[in-house]
């Protein structure tokens, strides 16, 4: 028991890195999701094409490869410096999950009944007004449960940043194990527990989202 | 008097399906028109073109003399853009078969939305006008209710109030009672009857209610195979026409017990 608590307090050195990357990556994933998701339902074929390419590329390749790309390849090839490792991690996760979540935005927007758009046109709302007052509020309710799930996945995805040298929970777990080899299994059990505890509020949130969503479809 | 709406050789195809094959129609201000015809004859399509929900594949539609689907840019005629459509369709309102109320908004908000967003009216003024219209359709006690909590007849009356707040010059009704339980049809027809009697706006009703068409329409159009096959005073078209296709239609209609 003693050593379990020991390990926990050791791991907690990485807590802030994990949490801060999770929060920032979640925020930017949402930004990307709405930006790309809405770009995919506009009329302009060029805008649609470019966004579709982004979404398919980032969904079709793995997060870890994208992370290495941003970390090793992009600075060398294009001379772009993305700032600290922390930012590289955040950007990679946001681009990756933003691509997945944009599909949620797109399909939710498209699944709002066509009659809603038609009624809004008949009232002479502009395109932007139709989206803002009629379509998005209804689409949002459809998005909530999926968003909850993706937030849990983003949290899990943050564990990859230890591979580019960020000192998150998993990083400290690895260090602990390498210096206390016999406690390896316990160390990783504690890592699991820690991630799970952080995930608890997210699980609660996504349950809540599901409820709101169910209520929203009546009407 | 100038017509408020003119259809000139209007055509509409969906792929290979030629639905409207040259519609010519003048609608005068405050005229009440009923459109009847077999299922699939293009009744809905005719009014959707005017509401800008579908684009004609030929011909012109003029609203108050302005070409709805075409605009002049540097002397050249182009397909109307969103801005042009927005300017012209301000005069047109529509009520749908399936109501299409906004489920996430209260009854009152459904009616104030176009006022505050399109007309930039302030909220108090918009609410006063919306309440007045809701009163008029008999829903003065439901302002805070959501559409989900209303009967079909009540929903359709809200939809009419919502269209009315915009004070259109012409209002389109697409079989507005056909999705309703029979016992709720009367309350909706009652509102339309009231509008027909007291409002200056032109009204176009696509309907299967022959008796009702006879009662309120100045003119009835029989649409068949993509053209207006008969047009005239209601009584002439429904009771005196010798057009065999129309008689066939009316006979089938009556034997279905729908009239
Ligand atoms: N979006 C569309 N795509 C393809 N075909 C369409 C479309 N809308 C209508 N049509 C076709 O056009 C024809 C006319 O349709 P419309 O809805 O105008 O008929 P209607 O007279 O209103 O019929 P009903 O009495 O059944 O409502 C039909 O054959 C229909 O299948
Ligand atoms: Mg129809």
Give structural attributes.
heterodimer, A: 219 residues, mainly alpha, MetI-like fold, 9 helices, flat, B: 259 residues, alpha/beta, Rossmann fold, six-stranded mixed beta sheet, four-stranded antiparallel beta sheet, globular, binds adenosine-5'-triphosphate, binds magnesium ion
Characterise the protein shown here.
The complex is a heterodimer of chains A (219) and B (259). The relative contact order of chain A is 0.15. Chain A is built from 9 helices and no strands. Chain A has a single domain (2-213), classed as MetI-like (MetI-like fold). The radius of gyration of chain A is 21 Å and the shape is flat. Chain A is mainly α. The longest helix of chain A is centred in the C-terminal third of the chain and has 34 residues, at 184-217. In chain A, helix 1 crosses helix 9 (184-217) and helix 7 packs antiparallel against helix 9. Chain B is globular. Chain B has 2 domains: 13-20 and 30-53 and 169-259, Rossmann fold (3-Layer(aba) Sandwich), CATH 3.40.50.300; 99-167, no CATH class. In chain B, helix 3 packs parallel to helix 5 and helix 4 crosses helix 5 (152-164). Chain B has 259 residues and is an alpha/beta fold. The longest helix of chain B has 17 residues, at 182-198. The two termini of chain B are 35 Å apart. A 6-stranded mixed beta sheet of chain B has the order 8-9-10-3-11-12, sandwiched between helices. Chain B has a 4-stranded antiparallel beta sheet with strand order 2-1-4-5, with helices on one face. Chain B has a two-stranded antiparallel sheet with strand order 6-7. Chain B is built from 9 helices and 12 strands. Chains A and B meet through helix 6 and helix 7 of A and strand 8, helix 3 and helix 5 of B.
């Amino acid at each position: 028991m003693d050593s379990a608590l020991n390990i926990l307090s050791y791991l907690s050195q990485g807590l802030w890195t994990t949490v801060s990357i999770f929060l920032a990556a979640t925020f930017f994933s949402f930004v990307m999701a709405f930006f790309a998701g809405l770009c995919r339902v506009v009329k302009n074929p060029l805008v649609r094409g470019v966004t579709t390419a982004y979404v398919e590329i980032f969904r079709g390749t793995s997060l870890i490869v994208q992370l290495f790309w941003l970390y090793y390849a992009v600075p060398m090839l294009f001379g772009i410096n993305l700032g600290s490792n922390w930012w590289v991690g955040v950007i990679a996760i946001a681009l990756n999950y933003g691509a997945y979540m944009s599909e949620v935005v797109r399909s939710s927007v498209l699944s709002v009944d066509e009659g809603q758009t038609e009624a809004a046109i008949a009232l002479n709302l502009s395109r932007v007004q139709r989206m803002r007052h009629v379509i998005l509020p209804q689409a949002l309710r459809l998005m909530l449960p999926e968003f909850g799930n993706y937030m849990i996945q983003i949290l899990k995805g943050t564990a990859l940043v230890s591979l580019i040298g960020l000192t998150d929970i998993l990083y400290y777990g690895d260090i602990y194990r390498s210096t206390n080899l016999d406690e390896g299994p316990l160390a990783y059990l504690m890592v699991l527990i820690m991630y799970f505890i952080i995930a608890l509020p997210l699980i609660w949130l996504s349950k809540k989202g599901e409820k709101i969503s169910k209520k929203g479809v009546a009407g | 008097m100038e017509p408020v709406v003119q259809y000139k050789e209007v055509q509409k195809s969906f792929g290979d399906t030629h639905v409207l094959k040259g519609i010519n129609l003048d609608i005068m201000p405050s005229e009440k028109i009923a459109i009847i015809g077999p299922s699939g004859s293009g009744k809905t399509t005719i009014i959707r073109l005017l509401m800008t929900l579908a684009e004609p594949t030929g011909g012109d539609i003029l609203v108050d003399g302005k070409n709805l689907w075409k605009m002049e840019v540097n002397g050249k005629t182009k397909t109307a853009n969103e801005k042009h459509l927005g300017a012209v369709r301000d005069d047109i309102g529509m009520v749908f078969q399936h109501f299409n109320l906004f489920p996430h908004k209260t009854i009152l908000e459904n009616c104030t939305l176009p006022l505050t967003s399109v007309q930039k009216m302030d909220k108090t003024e918009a609410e006063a006008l919306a309440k007045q219209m809701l009163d008029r359709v008999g829903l003065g006690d439901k302002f805070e209710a959501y559409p989900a909590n209303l009967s079909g007849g009540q929903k359709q009356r809200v939809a009419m109030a919502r269209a009315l707040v915009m004070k259109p010059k012409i209002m389109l009704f697409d079989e507005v009672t056909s999705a309703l339980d029979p016992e709720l049809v009367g309350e909706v027809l009652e509102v339309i009857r009231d509008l027909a009697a007291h409002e200056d706006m032109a009204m176009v009703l696509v309907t299967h209610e022959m008796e009702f068409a006879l009662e309120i329409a100045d003119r009835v159009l029989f649409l068949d195979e993509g053209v207006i096959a008969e047009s005239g005073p209601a009584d002439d078209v429904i009771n005196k026409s010798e057009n065999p296709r129309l008689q066939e239609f009316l006979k089938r209609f009556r034997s279905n017990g729908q009239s």
